[in-house]
């Protein structure tokens, strides 16, 4: 069934994958869902060990990789705080990677420096999966986002995806915009002028044949959306608190905003969220952000078994 060949492949950037490969990963992930839910058991990664090297904290990404590995019968070792490692004593990234490859079969790395994952992949003969590097890439987040849209909407091409909030600094939306354009989705970028999508991302999306709509008003853009992908507007980006509160308030999803939305519009969010989605939205059929967080497990299970080439 799976013709996808990914043995020993590094997962550094979503741009390294073709549409067909992403489709293959998503198909495999959907077979993993019952195992991820604990309804079926699997031991395909029995005897395999995952190293999680988190030089930057991340609860969801780390736990979902661990869950993925354990659900497939594998083991996990690693750290969630660099202060717990020899990196504190000045050990280089190269040495940490060489140590981890000696102890394990696959390495998941999160690092504050952009390009760290590409570098790690060079040093390691074992597959390296990028779990976020600085403002760079977070490919497994993009894959689980695409998987969520496909599962909820049945397709990705031709649907209207509205990316909103902090599009300038939000790492997840840069990779996601690229991938959505590869699939031929209609894109709308809704953000205040100072947080609009960077020019290089807009150019990149256009080069893939998609002309994004640039919007500053959520009121205006929400009615056309099939998917609204919300990101957090970060307080620390604003020198003036009053300015932040004004902006954050205008980009908040609440029950009033939802009255303008399509009945089957879905809301996604990479989490953690603060105030950008009102709590009462959680109980509406629009809310899919907790399903999205769960989807990280089957997607990461699929990736781990593919790069270790062990099949269900």
Description:
This protein is an alpha/beta fold and 312 residues long. The chain has 2 domains: 14-137 and 294-307, Aspartate/ornithine carbamoyltransferase (Rossmann fold), CATH 3.40.50.1370; 140-292, Aspartate/ornithine carbamoyltransferase (Rossmann fold, 3-Layer(aba) Sandwich), CATH 3.40.50.1370. It contains 11 helices and 9 strands. The protein has helices at residues 19-36, 59-71, 93-103, 116-123, 139-153, 171-182, 199-207, 218-221, 241-250, 255-258, 289-307, and strands at 49-54, 75-79, 106-111, 128-133, 160-164, 186-190, 213-215, 227-230, 266-268. The strands form 2 sheets. Strands 7-6-5-8-9 form a 5-stranded parallel beta sheet. Helix 1 (19-36) packs across helix 11 (289-307), helix 3 (93-103) packs across helix 4 and helix 5 (139-153) crosses helix 6.
Question: What's the topology here?
Answer:
Elements: H1 19-36, E1 49-54, H2 59-71, E2 75-79, H3 93-103, E3 106-111, H4 116-123, E4 128-133, H5 139-153, E5 160-164, H6 171-182, E6 186-190, H7 199-207, E7 213-215, H8 218-221, E8 227-230, H9 241-250, H10 255-258, E9 266-268, H11 289-307
Parallel strand pairs: 1-2, 1-3, 3-4, 5-6, 5-8, 6-7, 8-9
Helix pairs in contact: 1-5, 1-11, 2-11, 3-4, 5-6, 5-11, 6-7
């Amino acid at each position: 069934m799976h013709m996808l060949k990914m043995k020993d492949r590094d997962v550094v950037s979503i741009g390294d994958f073709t549409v067909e490969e992403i489709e293959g990963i998503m198909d495999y992930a959907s077979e993993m869902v019952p195992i991820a839910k604990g309804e079926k058991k699997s031991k395909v990664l029995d005897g395999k060990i995952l190293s999680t090297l988190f030089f930057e904290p991340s609860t969801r990404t780390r736990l979902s990789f661990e869950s993925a590995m354990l659900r497939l019968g594998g083991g996990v070792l690693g750290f969630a705080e660099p202060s717990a490692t020899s990196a504190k004593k000045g050990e280089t990234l190269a040495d940490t990677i060489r140590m981890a490859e000696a102890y394990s079969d696959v390495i998941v790395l999160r690092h504050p420096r952009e390009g760290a994952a590409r570098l790690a992949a060079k040093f390691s003969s074992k597959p390296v999966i990028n779990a976020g590097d600085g403002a760079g890439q977070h490919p497994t987040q993009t894959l689980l986002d695409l998987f969520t849209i496909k599962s909820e909407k049945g397709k990705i091409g031709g649907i209207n995806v509205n990316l909103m909030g902090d599009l300038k600094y939000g790492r997840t939306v840069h990779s996601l915009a690229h991938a959505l354009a590869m699939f031929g989705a209609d894109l709308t970028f809704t953000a205040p002028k100072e947080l609009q999508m960077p020019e290089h991302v807009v150019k990149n999306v256009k080069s893939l044949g998609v002309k994004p709509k640039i919007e500053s008003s959520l009121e205006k853009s929400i009615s056309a959306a099939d998917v609204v992908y919300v990101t957090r507007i970060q307080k620390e980006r604003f020198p003036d608190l009053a300015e932040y509160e004004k902006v954050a308030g205008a980009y908040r999803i609440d029950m009033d905003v939802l009255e303008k939305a399509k009945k089957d519009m879905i809301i996604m969010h990479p989490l953690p969220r603060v105030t950008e989605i009102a709590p009462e939205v959680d109980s509406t059929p629009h809310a899919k952000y907790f399903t999205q967080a769960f989807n990280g497990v089957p997607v990461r299970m699929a990736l781990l078994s593919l790069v270790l080439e062990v099949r269900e």
